[in-house]
Design goal:
There is one protein chain. This protein is α+β, with helices and mostly antiparallel strands. 49% of the residues lie in helices and 9% in strands. It is built from twelve helices and seven strands. A four-stranded antiparallel β-sheet has the order 1-2-4-3. Strands 6-5-7 form a three-stranded antiparallel β-sheet, with helices on one face. A hairpin with a 4-residue loop joins β1 and β2. The longest helix has 31 residues. The relative contact order is 0.09.
């Protein structure tokens, strides 16, 4: 039956698809690539590097961006060094003096809205720190400023060295992001004339993935079920958001008789069941909450026949011709 719906691509289409796939695979990074991890250092919050670098890492293969990767890695390392030299002695001094001066907090945190790594805590008076580790770093602290040059809270601090390292890190990421966009635009322009090939390849990929998924599920679950169970089945041509469709639950193992008054929805239910069965055995989504559908050799739906004056057939003749089609 699939041969009636699928057509055999020509050698030209196959060649075009291979070229497009090769060109995309040469540039675009795949899900299995493990060489594009985010920068990670012990004193820098992980979500900081992830937020900054996620805008460009994992888009294209690293072989096209080696220089930019090195620049970003060096900038991240320099930022870690600056944080270690300017913030860590203060935090160590705070922890050492906790027993003497009570509860004192000092942390290296990620200010997400400002895309910065700053020190958050209290700035102690120099007299307490005289000739002790962290005195020089404490004197270098200055209030962190937002993008408008205004002080960002009373407990957020930074240093000139940390700010320079942050600027270098952001500039390196901006360059890398610009290079990724440039490469993607070049690829897009190159494939602009191959739109039909891309659409064809995408369609074939969707069909292949659906068939593979259906086959894999069938192998995992074993033989097809002997009965069809559908929960929350709705007519696919109705908009559920408008509340005009009635959901039905169907449990069918062999022959059953459907009865009801005129206008009660018998025809709609029959059409919905047949559509769900067809979509299910093709591996597509079924308009229902859940569905267990066996394999059917054929799906046949027959509604009331009317006469066809154009063909010169009465309603009975139309019914006989449809029956003849089923028999063949």
């Amino acid at each position: 039956m699939l041969n009636k719906f699928l057509f055999k691509p020509s050698l030209f289409q196959v060649g075009e698809c291979e070229w497009v796939s090769s060109r995309i695979g040469e540039l675009i990074s795949q899900d299995g690539d493990v060489d594009q991890e985010f920068s990670s250092y012990s004193l820098i919050p992980n979500d900081f590097c992830e937020d900054i670098e996620s805008s460009w890492k994992g888009r294209v293969k690293i072989k096209h961006m080696e220089n930019f990767y090195e620049e970003v890695d060096e900038a991240a390392k320099a930022l870690h060094t600056a944080v270690s030299e300017d913030f860590l002695p203060i935090i160590s001094r705070i922890r050492a003096s906790t027993a003497s001066f009570g509860e004192r907090k000092g942390k290296i945190l990620y200010a997400r809205e400002h895309e910065a790594v700053w020190f958050k805590g209290k700035r102690f008076t120099p007299s307490v720190w005289v000739e002790t580790p962290g005195e020089l770093q404490n004197k270098q602290l200055r209030h962190a400023m937002d993008s408008k040059g205004k002080k960002f809270g009373d407990e957020w601090f930074t240093t000139a060295k940390v700010e320079d390292a942050l600027m270098r890190y952001h500039e390196a990421n901006d360059k890398a992001k610009a290079k990724v966009l440039e490469l993607l635009r070049e690829l897009s322009a190159e494939l602009q004339c191959k739109t039909n090939t891309l659409v064809f390849a995408s369609m074939m990929l969707i069909i292949a993935k659906a068939l593979c998924a259906q086959n894999g599920k069938q192998v995992a679950e074993g033989p097809c079920p002997a009965r069809m169970d559908i929960v929350g089945l709705s007519p696919y041509w109705f908009d559920l958001s408008q509340g005009s469709a009635v959901r039905n639950t169907v449990s069918m193992q062999s022959l059953f008789l459907l009865t009801g008054p005129n206008g009660g929805g018998k025809s709609s239910l029959l059409r919905s069941v047949c559509a769900a069965a067809l979509l299910g055995i093709c591996g597509f989504m079924v308009p229902a909450e859940s569905a267990s559908i066996p394999h059917f050799d054929a799906i046949v739906l027959h509604m009331k026949s009317y006469d066809s004056p154009v063909d010169g057939k009465s309603s009975f003749q139309v019914l006989l011709s449809r029956t003849a089609v089923l028999e063949t």
